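ugh ok fine here u go
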Amino acid sequence: MRAIQYVQPCEVSWVDIPDPVLPSDGMVLRMQVAAICGSDLHFLHDSPREDYTFLLGQSGHECVATVEASNVAEYSCGTSVLALVPRFDGFADYVVATPDEVVLLPAGLLPECAVMTQQLGTVVYCCRKLGSVVDKRVVIVGQGPAGLLFTRGNYNT
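structure:
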């Protein structure tokens, strides 16, 4: 299998690594879509030279995957999940996960849309903390994916 590795500023390489071993209490996930978080771009662009080479698969943590192999009854092979990879190693062909590191996705949800659900969760959380902004002036700085979700949203809190 392959994984991405940040090897120097603004340069990534594909690295061949062994396939993961199926854990007795977990599953192996085949990555479908992985996004780079806007707050993680600095790893690739601004890290000091001595920080390179980064860990394999880093900094992928916004991921949609399919269960490839499983020892968990609730997650059979072929199940589509949002992968919450705590090791930030989602830029790989396969990762291992435990049941608390995945969220079942509804059938028919496109992976390209599903990958945004992690950011949407952050937006909804922030909106709940923010309170009502009705009839107030607000500024949304940074119109990346999360900023666009803030702009678009009508989140009932």
